[in-house]
Design goal:
- The chain is of the alpha/beta class.
- The chain folds into 2 domains: 346 residues, UDP-N-acetylmuramoyl-L-alanine:D-glutamate ligase, CATH 3.40.1190.20; 271 residues, Alpha-Beta Barrel (TIM Barrel), CATH 3.20.20.70.
- It is 39% helix and 18% strand.
- The chain has a 9-stranded mixed sheet with strand order 5-4-1-8-9-10-11-12-13, sandwiched between helices. An 8-stranded parallel beta barrel has the order 14-15-16-17-18-19-20-21, surrounded by 6 helices.
- Strand 20, helix 19 and strand 21 form a beta-alpha-beta unit.
- Helix 17 packs parallel to helix 18.
- The chain is elongated, with a radius of gyration of 28 Å.
- It starts with 5 loop residues before the first strand and ends with a helix.
Length: 633
């Protein structure tokens, strides 16, 4: 089966989860929610893709905003969505939940006639099922006649094609109509009808995974070993019993007298925030090994580590560990006492789950506030014209960006450019937005001490840009103040999920020796601050070499460096680009005044029309892009 294009087809629930952001709260008292992709099959698809498996989603979502969110998220995770239908007649399912305590998770499912339960055998072909090494079926899709029929057909196709069949029991009594609608957190209710559904499929499976209670319902038994023995009479599948912090127990053949006589794989010690999603993470880790024919013990260990990492995080799918995290955890297993508290693992999760790659970024920077104020004051005009100026710069950028999709961007403020930020949202541009109080040293933020709260209201796609005048030889008091601010900002970005671009400029009053900037970056890294991006002034070869060495040493996952302009003449910047572009970590530029300065002043003096300003800025921006592209090796 090694030649098959897919490792896994994940069939079943895919939805939107709305997670309460107030821990220790009843669902009635939650005041804000985080939105994630969810559903057992959707979570497993994301988790397996993050482990490097080639995964396709087989389900439906609504042809509406939530459905597009699910689809776009899966695409960003590398999941094949060619068989994720967009249902025009049904809505995407929702799950709304809160984290009351480590054992209590009030949960509401909104799944009345939802899109994923309308999956039909007409939505896939035998050839599609045969294109994968394995088919995963999740238990909720056995709860209605039509969804059961679709699952049964997919399993039949798999058996005919030699595609392995995996059953995640995924038992939610509320979704079978066995509890009150508000009791989504109840995990077990006996039901002969439910048991008959699972028993009817057991003989067709190669792998069955569930908790002890889920094996009870699957076998219609009330004791774990009795349930396993009953299922073994129906199926030769590998059984995997998930036991939370105790790890898992695997049974590949005859069922012994006691649970502990199976293949016991130990669990990991972590602080539990949220057990929801742990089973899906376990399945993702287990399948990483199982689909590559690794030992069952190794598969169980992968699953246990993945589950342990997820229970310490908020959400299900976004908490799924990546291959880089798991590999690092395995490589350092003896030295990691608590995976959830390991700083490097948490950093790896942040940087290896980024949604979009940016190998090339050419930014038109017009986030300046005081510069524009000075410009209009000198021309004797009103500051009310500044938003119009920024609108013209944005219009010029849009004329250019269509020729360089996925490689252009903007830096713009919300003081005079909020309308531009709103206009540019959702266009696939790299978007940066400043937080620093212009000209501050020590560093201060426009939002004051509440910068973290301010970021909660920013769209996730916006990169937090912060300019700091920083020198490693600053006086101790000044350096401490600035470092405290940088740490606070970085932790806020980690909490809200925003990327951070740190612009570092050495203050004029201190020496600017060849390694001063590199030492400044090293000092910031030593604080535990890991910017996604750096924005740095032009350097000579010695300076770039030192900077590249520091970044490689402290954070090889850094997105890269953007070269700033500082109102430098084009010819000088062109020479600077020729040096910077030789270094792989320099991904592009973020230049402003050199592009828009003169056209904007001409407009303020009445020498240019609005159309002429846009054309001039467009021409300058294109010239800058050409200079950068021609400088690249």
């Amino acid at each position: 089966m090694s030649e098959r294009p897919l490792d896994l087809i994940s069939l079943g629930r895919v939805a939107v989860d709305l997670y309460g952001q107030q821990y220790g709260s009843r669902l009635e008292d939650v005041t804000s929610f985080a939105k994630y992709i969810g559903g057992c099959a959707g979570n497993i698809a994301v988790g397996c893709a993050r482990q490097g498996l080639k995964v396709a989603m087989l389900s439906r979502v609504g042809d509406e905003q939530m459905g597009r969110f699910v689809r776009e998220t899966l695409v960003a995770e590398g999941v094949d969505v060619s068989h994720l239908g967009m249902d025009p007649n049904r809505l995407t399912a929702l799950a709304i939940l809160s984290i009351k305590d480590r054992d209590t998770f009030p949960l509401l499912f909104y799944r009345e006639n939802c899109a994923d339960m309308a999956l039909s055998a007409d939505d896939f072909s035998p050839e599609f099922i045969a294109s994968s090494k394995a088919l995963l079926v999740t238990g909720t899709h056995l709860s209605t006649p039509s969804a059961y029929a679709a699952s049964r057909t997919a399993i039949d196709y798999a058996r005919q094609a030699g595609t392995r069949v995996i059953l995640d029991i995924d038992y939610r009594p509320v979704l079978w109509g066995l509890t009150a609608r508000g009791s989504g957190d109840i995990r077990f209710v006996e039901s002969q009808s439910v048991s008959s559904h699972f028993r009817s499929l057991a003989g067709s499976c190669d792998l069955i995974v569930g908790t002890e209670e889920e094996f009870h319902i699957a076998a219609e038994a009330t004791e774990t070993m009795a349930a396993l023995r009953e299922l073994r009479q129906l199926s030769s599948a590998v059984f995997v019993v998930k036991r939370g912090s105790k790890g898992c127990v695997v049974f590949a053949a005859k069922i012994p007298a006691r649970l502990e006589q199976g293949l016991v794989v130990r669990g990991e010690c972590v602080e539990v925030l949220n057990v929801l999603g742990a089973g899906d993470a376990f399945m993702s880790g287990f399948l990483r090994g199982w689909l590559r024919d690794e030992s069952l013990e190794r598969c169980g260990y992968y699953g246990n580590v993945c589950g342990a990492l997820v229970v310490s995080r908020h959400g299900c799918a976004p908490a799924m560990p990546t291959r880089h995290e798991l590999d690092n955890c395995l490589a350092r297993a003896e030295s990691i006492e608590r995976p959830d508290q390991d700083a490097w693992l948490n950093h790896l999760h942040r940087v290896t789950t980024r949604a979009q790659a940016w190998p090339l970024v050419m930014v038109l920077a017009f986030d300046h506030r005081s510069l524009f104020e000075t410009m209009v004051d000198e021309c004797g005009t009103s500051r009310d014209y500044i938003p119009a100026l920024k609108g013209m710069i944005a219009a010029a950028l849009l004329k250019v960006t269509q020729d360089y999709p996925g490689a252009t961007g903007i830096l713009v403020d919300d003081s005079y450019g909020q309308h531009v930020l709103e206009q540019m949202s959702g266009r696939g541009l790299w978007i940066g937005r400043p937080v620093e109080l212009s000209g501050s040293r020590p560093l201060a933020f426009e939002a004051g001490i509440n910068v973290g709260l301010d970021l909660l209201h920013w769209p996730r796609e916006q990169v937090v840009k912060c300019l700091v005048h920083f020198h490693p030889d600053d006086p101790p008091d000044l350096r401490t103040q600035q470092e405290d601010q940088l740490q606070a900002l970085y932790h806020a970005c980690c909490e809200t999920g925003h990327e951070l671009l740190l612009e570092v400029i050495l203050p004029r009053e201190l020496p600017r020796s060849g390694d001063a900037l590199a030492r400044a970056l090293a000092r910031i890294y030593e604080l535990g601050v890991f910017p996604d991006w750096w924005k740095l002034p032009p350097l000579d070869e010695t300076g770039w070499s030192a900077v590249e060495t520091v970044i490689a040493q402290y954070d090889p996952y850094c997105r890269g460096v953007l070269v700033l302009g500082q109102d430098t003449p084009f010819e000088t910047l062109q020479k600077a680009f020729a040096v910077a572009a030789r270094y792989p970590m320099v991904k592009g530029f973020a230049v402003g005044r050199s592009i828009f300065g003169e056209p904007c002043r001409a407009w303020l003096r009445g020498e240019f029309s609005s159309e002429e300003v846009v054309s001039a800025i467009e021409a300058n921006y294109r010239q800058m892009i050409t200079a950068w592209l021609e400088s690249r090796p």
